[in-house]
């Protein structure tokens, strides 16, 4: 059996008295390194052996209360000490054939053969009292929530499930207590889990609503609301703004219908999203105006991205018979850099001004950037 192999591995040593290195990793599967207790694997095998042997008794799951807060307050070294001392105190006064295993984290499984339910509950209450005694490295009182159930030949999975449900019920009732598994505890724990699932679902729905409120319905890009939020929080250092305006878009809608205009906007947005870098953000500001925030982009990199954006839109080859600029749909791009002297919002306004000036001066389907630093 698994736990017999576990014991044999402990005894195997080489001639020098040092444990065989080939079994160090195997040993870790059977003995918890921190507490020295048997692991979950050994616990499940022992439960199977007890089931085959017809052993009767009780099993319990113990979970230390507020262990995360304890770790946060006193540090992981103190948390490890709590786990070691907990293991020692849970092993005190075990009945014949009884054992404790660490299941993972701050959870422990306790097997109490030959005891009645009343005796097992009394033993667990006494164990919890031992846990509350002072420990080194921390000043807080330690306690646990225990879920206990009768062992009458269940499979390990069913036994652990019943113990878990009772332990969750103990936590729901205020922690630091022993709860016996029955129909009432099943109902309490189930409702608690259902509530947690409901809360998680509501959180997901709320996030979906938040995302929807910040997404442009037509193009799928982030919308003006999301842009305003990004401008308010973006760091001015090493960020550039590209302002994109679709050339002669009013004429496009007039000649090709609004439906075709919507399709063109979606195609342009998709091309922009596919062209920008992973760290960049694309927004539909409104109408035929798009904005791209270029993060960690020096002037040269920002200019290169802007040129790729212009080329990607022209490569869509969307016919535009009403454009005096080109036979296909094109964009004009203004690029500006934020700095310590102006905000990202002001940088957007500067990029937009470059694009608008280009339109007035018949310089569409081009990228217009501010002079590079040091340019004469």
UniProtKB/TrEMBL annotation:
Superkingdom of the organism of origin: Bacteria
EC number in record: 2.7.7.65
GGDEF domain sequence ranges: 55-183, 237-372
PROSITE patterns, sorted: GGDEF (PS50887)
SUPFAM superfamilies the record matches: Nucleotide cyclase
Chemical reaction(s) catalysed: 2 GTP = 3',3'-c-di-GMP + 2 diphosphate
InterPro entries to which the protein is assigned, alphabetical: Diguanylate_Cyclase, GGDEF_dom, Nucleotide_cyclase, Rev_trsase/Diguanyl_cyclase
UniProt-recorded name of the protein: diguanylate cyclase
């Amino acid at each position: 059996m698994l736990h017999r192999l576990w014991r044999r591995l402990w005894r195997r040593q080489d001639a020098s008295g040092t444990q065989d290195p080939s079994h160090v990793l195997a040993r870790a599967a059977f003995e918890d390194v921190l507490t020295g207790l048997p692991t979950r694997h050994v616990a499940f095998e022992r439960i199977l052996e007890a089931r085959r042997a017809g052993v009767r008794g009780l099993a319990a799951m113990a979970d230390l209360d507020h262990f995360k807060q304890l770790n946060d307050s006193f540090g992981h070294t103190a948390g490890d000490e709590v786990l070691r001392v907990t293991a020692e105190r849970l092993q005190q006064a075990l009945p014949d054939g009884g054992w404790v295993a660490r299941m993972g984290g701050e959870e422990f499984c306790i097997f109490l053969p030959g005891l009645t339910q009343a005796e097992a509950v009394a033993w667990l209450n006494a164990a919890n009292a031992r846990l509350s005694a002072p420990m080194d490295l921390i000043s807080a009182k330690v306690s646990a929530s225990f879920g206990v159930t009768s062992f009458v030949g269940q499979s390990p999975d069913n036994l652990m499930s019943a113990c878990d449900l009772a332990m969750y019920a103990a936590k729901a009732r205020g922690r630091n207590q022993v709860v016996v598994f029955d129909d009432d505890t099943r109902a309490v724990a189930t409702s608690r889990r259902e509530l947690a699932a409901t809360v998680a679902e509501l959180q997901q729905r709320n996030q979906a609503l938040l995302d929807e409120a910040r997404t442009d319905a037509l193009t799928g890009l982030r919308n003006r609301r999301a842009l305003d939020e990004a401008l308010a929080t973006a760091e001015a250092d090493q960020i550039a703004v590209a302002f994109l305006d679709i050339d002669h878009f009013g004429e496009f809608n007039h000649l090709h219908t609004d439906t075709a205009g919507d399709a063109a906007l979606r195609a342009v947005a998709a091309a922009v999203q596919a062209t920008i870098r992973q760290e960049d953000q694309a927004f539909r500001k409104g109408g035929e105006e798009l904005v791209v925030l270029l993060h960690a982009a020096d002037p040269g990199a920002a200019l290169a991205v802007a040129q790729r954006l212009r080329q990607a839109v022209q490569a869509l080859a969307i016919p535009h018979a009403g454009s005096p600029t080109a036979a296909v749909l094109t964009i004009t791009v203004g690029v500006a850099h934020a700095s310590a002297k102006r905000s990202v919002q002001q940088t957007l306004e500067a990029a937009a001004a470059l694009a608008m000036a280009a339109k007035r001066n018949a310089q569409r389907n081009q990228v217009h950037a501010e002079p590079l630093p040091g340019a004469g």
